């Protein structure tokens, strides 16, 4: 009879009943039904299933039969909490029965729970169940037992949804442990979800969920074995070079977090038992992380490796990276010592976003200082800007003096002064600088830091740029030829690329906007700290320009104008673009004994590709631009399946530059086929590339192409 | 835009040697002339008339050895001077006399300036570096009887005393001595027991100079490094570092807090005089006039605040006189 009434509730219930009436009514129905199943032998499986379906799908059934005008109680956000209340009521009943020595079964209730969860209503039902069960299980072992039953009796096909729901909603690892018991040990499906799926296959969960999950694993003996297994698997993934190369940054970050949390749970004897394995996987992982060309991946590797090393070497030497940003990561944490030790780095991710740009955080005391009456305020300070470091020696006045000092002098003070003075000397005396330009370029390229001169790298770079812009052709020839010659360090080769870009930038726009700004703040500066990855700057510039360009195209299209507004200013780069560009693109596939761009030196390849993109962009309105575009498209085509996402990002930037710089008519006349090929590749990337930035860039490129097409269609032929 | 720093009020030239010590005596009633004493490397003490900016007298009492400390006892008629000839001389300058009436043989070969404190009418205490390496002696003047000899514990490895400051809290309390040592620490000595009350390591390098404000129980010290250290003395007579201030260039040879405790001046090895607010050590001015190390800074004791001067003596043989922050 119960089943019959449940099956057609909308007809059997008078519409006149108030909401509250509905509510009570249903609550009782559920209680009666559930109670029935708790105390009787299970009936036929089909009937039970049918009833289950009715109960769980009731909101849909009602909604369908009333054509969407169902009473509020049948809205899922009301109905499922109600159901949860009924489940609780029945569980109360079960608990009393058990205390009275009666035998009961919670299997039907478990089925209900499972079915609701798999229908995606975890939030609604568990938001009622979890807080109550948390309270009830606090000190009552019968309730704990009931709870364990409840989850253990959930059929395998629904287990995942239930476990996920509990892990995400439990307020802490200890609560989770009370609610689930040793479910992961007993149930294979649950074990798979917890130890594999949530950790290795998915990566969208918050740090709190991760902490819940791993804390739960660490809280009981049999589960601790799983924790160690999980750690080993995580480390395996972390240390696999293929995973580092191909999985998205977010996932790697997630896995690193999980590793750090695991480490913080490990105890001394457990570490002892797997120290060797930890060490091996750490070494492998560090290696493949440091090889990556993305700074955030390298940083992740260093953080995790440092943590592992400090955990396994309690007495011996500890791995320590001398990288500024790590120190910063940790020092930000000094104030928050209450958090778990293993997590201190993780919290840093909140402060520094993934790109490693510190988000300004106003310290608390800064506010209070504002209101503090400064009693020295009546004394007004004088200008103290002249208070600079005292110099011991005078700066050299002639370029030839500089050369002499930089090549031969043992006097370190003089040497420092020469490094500082060189840029302005070159700029002030272009004629004198031209006489010795190549020699200067050579000296600067080989110049090494002799003292701890602050900003040495920047000073040297500025001087190099000055030399290159003063006498572009011979110096560019020299630098580009040196890029592909033997016995240079990667650093020097990347210096060459940076200098070429900065000089090209200066040449292409300095005159038009006024002569004074040659090395001022208006030029985007390339920072040379390894973690800051100068290419980011370039990409930002290119991206910004693409964006502004895209909008302009739209605009002009909307206005019905066909002409693209190209920046119209004298471009000094015009006659020089080829000298910068072609020697660089020529030899990339010719490995030298010390330098293999297509092999392990892919980081330099990435920089080269980005450099080419910028040079291409800067060559807008020059004579050589079409030839350059064609050569670059071929280059992109040859490298399009490169495994390093940094290289791929560069290639996509190259495509953008080509689309922006080469006049549309030339693009269609000379490189139609290449363009079509590129387009299909772009579509592929936009859809399938594991790297988010690559996908975004590819989309941008497709958009650019689309605009180009529209523009040509509307253009009078 | 902040104002550019002022130029010197005037400059005294003519010592013909590096200036190491300065001492104003300007507290007298009219028609007494304000006076500045300066001690130079060639052993002369010049008496400058601050009305005419000329030398009134040049005293030669240290055998042409550098004079590096000057102090007056009750007005400008009695002057103490310490020189590299290991003597401290007491000069009688009243009524135009220029004679040494008494002297103490210190037997000390260091550069540590002594310190004088008036404890009662006609009774002074003078602390000076002693004969032994780490030792400080305290004498009573004018009787020259030894009050105590302060020796650090065996094995303390403090090195030579570098600077001394005798001071006394509110009336009647015990006089105490602050001493800065070669190893960078500052010690507070109890003169009656001869014991260390507190020790504070506030520098990595020798403490070159210190000054102490007994009202706020707060002091400042400078060393040959780039740091000024401000420390305070709490109720339990413990010295604690309050804050440090980083300088642009290393080396401080002298520090003086102005008698009204509003500002302080430092003499830098980088040729510059720096002015700070004393309450929070707010940097106020950098006075760049000298062309060599500044050895000494001193504030005048003018009765009227608006007349107050700052004098700085340097290795470039000049004494610059500044009038700065006089309106506060």
From TrEMBL, chain A:
Gene3D superfamilies: Telomere length regulation protein 2, C-terminal domain (1.25.40.720). Keywords: Cytoplasm, Membrane, Nucleus, Transmembrane, Transmembrane helix. Residues 396-504 form the Telomere length regulation protein conserved domain. It comes from the Eukaryota. Its main location: cytoplasm. GO terms for cellular component: cytosol; membrane; nucleus. SUPFAM superfamilies: ARM repeat. One of its GO terms (biological process) is 'de novo' cotranslational protein folding. It is found in: Cytoplasm; Membrane; Nucleus. The chain crosses the membrane at residues 21-38. Residues 223-317 form the TELO2 ARM repeat domain. One of its GO terms (molecular function) is Hsp90 protein binding. Belongs to the TEL2 family. PANTHER family: TELOMERE LENGTH REGULATION PROTEIN TEL2 FAMILY MEMBER, TELOMERE LENGTH REGULATION PROTEIN TEL2 HOMOLOG. This is Telomere length regulation protein TEL2 homolog. It comes from Chrysolophus pictus. The lineage of its organism: Eukaryota, Metazoa, Chordata, Craniata, Vertebrata.
UniProtKB/TrEMBL annotation, chain B:
It comes from the Eukaryota. WD repeats lie at residues 176-199, 200-241, 287-328. It comes from Chrysolophus pictus. Keywords: Repeat, WD repeat. This is G protein subunit beta 1 like. Signal peptide: none annotated. SMART domains: WD40. InterPro entries: WD40/YVTN_repeat-like_dom_sf, WD40_repeat_dom_sf, WD40_rpt.
